[in-house]
Amino acid sequence: MDFIVLFPLIVVGAGAIILMLMASMKSLSEGNTALAALGVLALAFAVQLMVSTTDNLTPYGGIFNGMLVANSFTKVAGLIIIACGFFSCLIAQSYFTQNRFYSAEFYSLIMFAACGMLLLTMAAELITLFIALEIMSLAIYVLVGYDRASVKRSEAVLKYLMLGAFAGAFFTMGTAFIYGAANSTRFVDIAAHLDTTSFLDSPAMAAGAFLVIVAFLFKVAAFPFHAWVVDVYDGAPLPVTGFMATAVKTAVFAVFANFLIIDGGLKGVWVEYLYYIAVLTMFAGNLIAIGQNNLKRMLAASGIVHTGYLLVALVAVGTDNFTGGVILYYLAAYAVSTLGVFAALSYLGGEDERRNSFEHFKGLAKVRPYSAAAITIFMLSMAGIPPTAGFMGKFYIIADAIRAGYMMLAVLAIASSVLSMWYYLRLVVMMYFQEPEEEFETAGMSLAPIGTAVLAVCVFAIGFYPVLL
């Protein structure tokens, strides 16, 4: 059982290394590389789906000294991450038919990032968590600046790298403080220490937790650490933007939740701050998104809003009998909608992503009705219109907040959702109520339309999947 739990991680990591070594072969075409990456991720997904972990399982606990833990929460988080990697590779295959800066290492880096994310979800110890965070981050840094000829990409990676380095430094310093207080970096030992010592009675523990949580807030783009998102997402290649917006958010929120529920006292101290951070994140994201004309920048700003909803779920979550079902459900609903939009943009955006604004998609429904219908489904899901997965995800989060006694937070989340309809439905209006100005031609064989259709179906399929609060 221990080997099966780690097998998806091993498959993705080994696949990334093999693909990186094979990248030196000039005969390796872009299409074959994409298919190889898709095959590896599909195998990892199938194995992860078969893993049965009803209780906490410590794989090879004697060898790894309890550094990793697997349960139903890490299993579902891993499934979402692997699926995000799969569809990001599929999006990249279509994207590179029109944008010619491809090299085989691109898919290897996506799998390295996914490997780091899988390790991140299972980390039960702060040093392991840091290593996983850096494996993920280093791969993402390279992917953001992958097109070295583009000044815009270089600017984006410089901004992300500099700010990410600060976040990594905060995390490292926080780990040192926590180790100084608890004499261990394992979550189990930290929880045992907090059982005997009040959180606020230990300045080192309080300072360490503060620095670690700041690092997490940066990675998920929560207020006030959200300013980098719009420029970095806009500057990154389109498949990378979709991957960052979904897989990175899933991995970091998974470990954020695991860290926050170490102890009821720890969560109790931070819940009030997270309450206000959630509110400010939702409305700051909305205000930024409303003023955007560029689709990638709008989606980046709306991702900040969705981070706010997930923070609402973290505020409402209980430390006893934690399952994380509501958080994972919302992450899955958000991932299929976001990746669906990026899949459609990958073959409709044209060379050098020249179709990138709302106006560029005028009359799309008259020229490509199926693509317009799929994009409409994704926009409605993000806006929280029934019967989509996005609506059910927001419903579960709001219901969970009310159940936990945060009525005002639930009301503000509803207000934020209503406000977001402005920029989501604006694209739908452009597609259906304007005359077309372009033919929306596509180049070469593209897998992305198939992915778009599959993700559109998933929006409704996930919407009908119940979650127990």
Order of helices and strands: HHHHHHHHHHHHHHHHHHH
Form type:
globular
Distance separating the two termini: 29 Å
Low-confidence stretches: none
Q: Could you give the count of β-strands?
A: 0
> In which range does the helix fraction lie?
over 70%
Biggest sheet details = none
Number of helices: 19
Q: How large is the radius of gyration?
A: 21 Å
Mean pLDDT: 84
- Into how many domains do the coordinates divide? 1
Strand content: under 5%
The helix-and-strand class reads mainly alpha
Question: How would you portray this structure in words?
Answer:
With 469 residues, the chain is mainly alpha-helical. It has one domain (2-463). 74% of the residues lie in helices and 0% in strands. It is built from 19 helices and no strands. It has helices spanning 2-22, 30-50, 61-64, 72-95, 105-122, 126-144, 151-182, 187-196, 203-219, 228-235, 238-260, 264-290, 295-316, 325-348, 364-367, 369-383, 389-403, 407-432, 448-463. Helix 6 (126-144) runs antiparallel to helix 11 (238-260). The protein is globular.
